Amino acid sequence: MRQHDILVECSQLVKEYKGTRNKPVRAVHDLSFSIRQGETFGLVGESGCGKSTLGQLMVRLLEPTSGTVRYTNFQDGRGNRKQEKAMRKENQIIFQDPYSSINPRKRIGWLVEEPLIIHGIGKDAQERKAMVCSILKEVGLDDSYLDRWPRELSGGQRQRVAIAIALILNPSFVVCDEVVSALDVSVQAQVLNLLQELQEKFGLTYLFISHNLQVVSYLSDRIGVMYLGGLVEMGDTEQIYHHCLHPYTKALFSASVDAFDSVKEDLLLSGDIPSPSRSPSGCPFHTRCISCMKRCIEENPSMVEVSPGHFCACHLIQGMNT
Amino acid sequence: MKRNFPLRRYFSNIHFAIGFYMVMTVVSLMILGFFYIPYDPNAIDIAHKLQGATTAHILGTDQLGRDIFSRVLVGTRVSLLIGILVVGFGVLIGTPLGALSGYFGGKTDEVIMKVIDTQMAFPGILLALMIIAVFGTSLQNTVLALGLMSIPRFTRIARSGFMKYRNAEFVQASRARGASHARILVLHILPNIVPELLVTASLGFASAVMSEAGLSYLGLGMQPPNPSFGKMLSEAQNYILQAWWYVLIPSVAISLLVMGFNLLGDGLQSINQQ
After folding, report:
1. ABC transporter domain: which residues (chain A) (predicted)?
2. Which of these, A3, A32, A60, A229, is most buried using a 10 Å CB contact count?
């Protein structure tokens, strides 16, 4: 992996929320990984494991408690208005629910044009309108949508509008936070294909967050599996599919309906994800792991590169290697 | 193509429709007053005092022989003007305060809300009396006093609205795009709480008309000989046995305005909730 290929890099990222009785809730815990230029990095995990928090950290909607998010193609924007604005132009986020992520009281044309006005792009209204029309065309909507209200649009159309708004600034990095979860299955496929087409066309880099394994594996080049605020396994889609190592990843695959043939053991998890305000000792997954050992309760495993590009945090694997 | 659809939705609400027509009755009287007033409203004609309805004076005359219809036409101006100014005062000062309070929260919120709560602790009419006692009676001071009274309600409504939307996804999304706080406050959140502010404005208008009538009745609002509904009412009550219509006319005018705006507000509220 060449160094300059990396677009975004997180190192030792921690995000804590204030919990009850001053006990911090660790939504993201000591997380390090990087995303390469032009790839789609899929992030999977159960509800409440910190996927969305991570996504928002990566576009600076949230400030990390500690650790850094570093972008390689532009300056860190903290504390500098101009740089922060430049950063806001390069990073975009698309949210899960197209009904709440679009201002219901503004017309589509206004909404899509707004980012251009914020960043002072386009000489006059006419030029901006041409840009709006062309991006609407890219996402499969025509000029007739300019004067429509969001309430007149279906979920799929709204998500297309949200994509248009995110892409009109020609960003380099887009966080897709569960973008298809709120849509019908038939519309899901359309939107996924659209995202893929746009990626090729504009050379976008995606962080694709989802709890749906099929969706993630369909789109992603690499996949990270998250559990309780940390990554437990990360690797190429191929590696995660066919040779996943972590018991949690195995359980995820076996739980997903119609999953891949290579993993067919019945590994249903019992219990819920532990509360992030009371993380278990040792390996965070030991409370639900079927092959939990004494060592797992005492010691938190670190990420180990099992094969090139394939990382896993599990004592089982490390035991095998040594 | 669907432009008239929203209006139809409003008028299918019975409260809104009745309130609207009540208010419009008074408004059309005011408009009529700009073009045609039968007599000088302050012209005294003792020979024809306290007359009933005649062809010369369609609503009769008062204790000084002044034409009541002319005085009503001019009086509507005062009531509506004060209502508009007071509501404007409340909206222009109360809404920004509430917006800052709800959007930024924390210390800003605490400071603003402490001030507003302190102000709310004063009984409204007492505050108005105080201001008028200090600064004297005039249209400006009445507006100032009633305007100050109407600030808290707008602040509270705006605060709850801005609080509700400050972390809405579309607000987060525009933040991620680099939108400034001012842009988010004015262009993104404000349009979403306009319906609630309209309800508050409508109810605030009703209470401003009521308070102005109350102050004028006590002799602290508009000064004679200028006509105002509250003043007319207080003059008329001395002649209630000789000229019952004289009491009735300003009462009906006040009721039309107050009930009209209250119904309008109620109607808007239930339309918003649909």
Report:
1. 8-253
2. A229
